[in-house]
Amino acid sequence: MSEIKNIGLITSGGDAPGMNAAIRAVVRTALYYNIEVTGIMRGYEGMINGEFFPMNRKSVSNIIQRGGTILKTARSEEFKTKEGRQKAFDQLQKHKVDSLVAIGGDGTFTGAKIFIKEFGMPILGLPGTIDNDLIGTDFTIGYDTAINTVVDAVDKIRDTAESHDRLFIVEVMGRDSGLIALRSGIGVGAEAIMIPESKTDINALFKRLEKGRKDKASKILIVAEGDDAGGAFEVAEKVKEKFPKYDTRVSILGHIQRGGSPTCMDRVLASRLGVAAVESLMEGRKGEMIGVCNGKIHFTPFKNAIKHISEVNPSLLKIVEILSL
Ligand code: ATP
Questions:
Q1: Whether residue 143 has its Cβ less than 6 Å from ligand 1
Q2: Which of 19, 91, 95, 230 could lock 69 by a disulfide, CB 3.0 to 4.6 Å apart?
Q3: How far is Cα of residue 273 from the mean position of the Cα atoms in its chain?
């Protein structure tokens, strides 16, 4: 018989498509095993402020296809303080919440790790971030949707670029991580990608553009926002200076990458992880992020999951180079 009686559920940090599918899976699985679920609004901020409500089957009806998070999300400075965390713990006790599932990124898991150390509460984490930069899962919830959004947008940009013989520099999300740029860049057949994980050699880029097929009407460069060469506007300035004849344009995709209906891949991933979270709490697990690696559920201690992936798969970078000729 499981000790777990009431699971608190939060989404925290940046929102990601598929978080709702994960919320639904946690709630339905808990109810399946006769465990109560308490929804906590606005992440750790709502935990401190006592924004709690009981969740039932109906609370998660008709949400699997919706982007964003019905529990909303927030960043909480107060939770970074001992006093803030004590207030959060007092609220959890008041509402008889005995365990937590936290859906978020590395900051969320850092907070959870400290909270477990201070109060011993069982917490498991689910990777919910469009960046895919957590160790311990092949993909994070939201990443597949985000790269499909980028591919969709850049396909449209390609149509107009092709018609006008233009070079487009498209900036995608990724302050510290180029994983959105890398996969979407391959998916759209980009001429080059620029990502924070590898130093951008602007002269090598110019050479590639010079060497590129002259009969190719359009060119697409994908730049992650955190690239060391700067954002899309900075790169465009340098390209314009070197190639004044190119009709160079910039497109910054921005927040559309966070929204939208999750792909089936994200819905299935979120559903698997939500079920695993409840069953793992029942088995007495805590302090871990649950992911899927090579098709199997995988557990990673928070302290390891929060280390950022600092290298990208070099074979994917090579693919961009080979295929863009
Ligand atoms: P994303 O990757 O989408 O940005 P995230 O979970 O990394 O998601 P953060 O804003 O970094 O997002 O973290 C979410 C929340 O976790 C913070 O607002 C804060 O309340 C809590 N948190 C982050 N770092 C710490 C810390 N060192 N100690 C306690 N709490 C923390």
A1: no
A2: 19
A3: 15
Cα(158)–Cα(93) distance, integer angstroms = 55
Q: Which residues contact 202 (CB under 8 A, 6 or more apart)?
A: 229, 235, 238
79 lines ligand 1 (CB under 6 A): yes
Q: What is the CATH number of the domain that holds 43?
A: 3.40.50.450
Hey, whose CA ends up nearest to atom 31 of ligand 1? 111
Is the CB–ligand 1 distance for residue 89 below 6 Å?
no
Instruction: At 152, list the tokens.
Output: 């969709």
Residues with active-site annotation: 131
Alpha carbon of 184 to ligand 1 centroid (Å): 26
pTM of the model: 0.96
Co-location of 107 and 95 in the same domain:
yes
In a domain, 57, yes or no: yes
Nearest of 313, 55, 324, 90 to residue 186 by alpha carbon: 324
In this structure, what CATH number is given to the domain that contains residue 189? 3.40.50.460
Q: Which tokens hold the place of 259?
A: 């929204």
Residue 325 in any domain: the answer is no
In a structure prediction context, what are the per-residue pLDDT tens digits for the chain, which is 325 residues long? 579 999 999 999 999 999 999 999 999 999 999 999 999 999 999 999 999 999 999 999 999 999 999 999 999 999 999 999 999 999 999 999 999 999 999 999 999 999 999 999 999 999 999 999 999 999 999 999 999 999 999 999 999 998 888 999 999 999 999 999 999 999 999 999 999 999 888 998 888 888 766 666 689 999 999 999 999 999 999 999 999 988 999 999 999 999 999 999 999 999 999 999 999 999 999 999 999 999 999 999 999 999 877 789 989 989 988 998 6
Q: Is 73 in the pocket of ligand 1 (CB under 6 A)?
A: no
